[in-house]
Specification:
about 20% strand, 2 domains, TIM Barrel, 6-stranded parallel beta sheet, single chain, binds zinc ion, 8-stranded mixed beta sheet, globular, Urease, subunit C, domain 1, alpha/beta
């Protein structure tokens, strides 16, 4: 296989280091084989991509996704193979080269039907929870039967479930630590003993544990019982400072997934679906559901649950949730905690098209642009233990690379100008069909 070299204008390597100007990145057999700044003579048969007035950075990694979900207010609305294929196309067109799918019913059944041209897909398949634990409050049991959720009670149940998921090739174990429902009623949750069994067992297979949490009351339990990443910034108040310190001390990665709430509120308040310029890449059933959701939101008083949404949240709570989420991210960043980028796409108006809003919100909460890119690449890979293979532009790593028409180190919104997406050393997407290959 021929050697490929990318002449970089601005290189952001994803490790958090300062940008390098005028470097060259050499690729061969799907890997990064060398990075230099010396401008030495190239072999005659080396292919060149000239990105000398562009940004070169690692492919984005979304560490919390639901590929099979679409927009709108209900789970499973508009689900079709055609739509899933469209989602996949949108994902890599938006610069995402790897995703961790954290819960999708019947996921494995869809894998053989997915297009060959796709991002790397890592998955957890099933949420492990205690009997009647989250998400029992809203998820129809038919999805449990399709593999979305597995309830476990005894040590043996937990061990058996993890063994079976490991056999199915999962890259992480997804669980939930949620002690109350969205409308503030008590909800069954793991005991410490159960959760420690789960984390110990997952770790014995080399699997990281990702915990869904939404209430300030539950972070302490997750931290003391050994989870590796905590997904979603708390909705209902400011996280306890001691819990935040415990999480940071234990090196827990925080995946705030704040854009889901932000984009949903914006989409509803600004009535995007009635704007002729808003033409989301989703089927008519999903668009119809977005209209229904928008109408229900408009008609609803501030303090009553918004009709047509799968959880009972009022407009007031929606807006408060966004406020608290941002405050909690700021605190985690201020205290030096690790942050990773996950969109939780898709529901509401957060689609699979681009993760830019999530990345911008992380920067708004206090990360520098370079740190926000690290959160969206290297640290995201760490959520499922793949940071030695993907997530940065370093010698020996798999060649998942983006070329951006702009300077991302100065302006994160330049991420919208995706020029080229390279996965495994191969060009999967390019803005110009006639690529500057010489
Ligand atoms: Zn999720």
């Amino acid at each position: 296989m021929k050697e490929l070299v990318i002449k970089c204008g601005t290189l952001i390597d994803g490790t958090g280091k300062d940008v390098i100007h005028n470097a060259r990145v050499f690729l061969k057999n799907g890997r990064i084989i060398r990075i230099d700044t010396e401008n030495s003579k190239l072999d005659d048969n080396t292919q060149i991509i000239d990105a000398s007035n562009k940004t070169v950075m690692p492919g984005i990694i979304d560490s919390h996704k639901h590929i099979i979900n679409n927009g709108g207010s209900g789970i499973g609305v508009g689900l079709s193979i055609k739509q899933i294929k469209e989602n996949i196309k949108q994902i890599y067109s938006g610069g995402v080269t790897s995703v961790l799918d954290l819960g999708s019913a019947n996921f494995l059944r869809f894998i053989p039907k997915l297009p060959i041209k796709q991002p790397r897909i890592f998955y957890a398949i099933t949420i492990l929870t205690c009997p009647n634990g989250y998400p029992a409050e809203y998820m129809n049991k038919k999805y449990y039967k399709l593999g979305s959720v597995k309830e476990c009670e005894t040590k043996e149940d937990i061990k058996k479930a993890i063994k079976s998921l490991h056999k199915k090739g999962v890259s992480a174990i997804k669980t939930a630590v949620v002690s109350r429902t969205f409308d503030n009623k008590p909800q069954k949750c793991w005991t410490d003993n159960q959760l420690i069994t789960l984390t110990d067992e997952a770790h014995s297979y080399g699997l990281k544990v990702c915990a869904h949490i939404t209430y300030v009351e539950d972070y302490a339990q997750a931290a003391r019982c050994g989870v590796d990443s905590i997904h979603h910034a708390a909705f209902n108040g400011k996280m306890n400072e001691r819990d935040v310190d415990d999480m940071i001390k234990k090196d827990i990665i925080f995946v705030p997934t704040v854009s889901l709430c932000d984009l949903t509120i914006k989409g509803l308040e600004e009535q995007w679906i009635y704007n002729p310029a808003y033409n989301p890449p989703v089927n008519e059933r999903i668009k119809e559901n977005m209209r229904k959701f928008t109408d229900a939101y408009k008609l609803c008083p501030e303090d009553k649950p918004v009709g047509d949404f799968f959880v009972k949240l009022s407009k007031k709570e929606f807006k408060q949730a966004l406020f608290y989420q941002l405050e909690n991210i700021k605190e985690y960043i201020k205290r030096g905690g690790k942050i990773a980028m996950g969109t939780d796409s898709s529901l509401g108006f957060s689609l699979h098209t681009t993760p830019i809003r999530e990345i911008e919100l992380l920067a708004l909460a206090g990360l520098s642009n370079i740190e926000a890119i690290k959160a969206s690449t290297f640290t995201s890979a760490s959520v499922f233990g793949k940071e030695k293979e993907i997530g940065s532009i370093e010698t020996g790593k798999l060649a998942d690379i983006l070329i951006i028409d702009g300077d991302v180190s100065k302006n994160l919104s330049d991420l919208q100008y995706i020029d080229t997406v390279i996965i495994n050393g191969k060009i999967k997407y390019t803005k110009n069909k006639k690529l500057n290959l010489s």
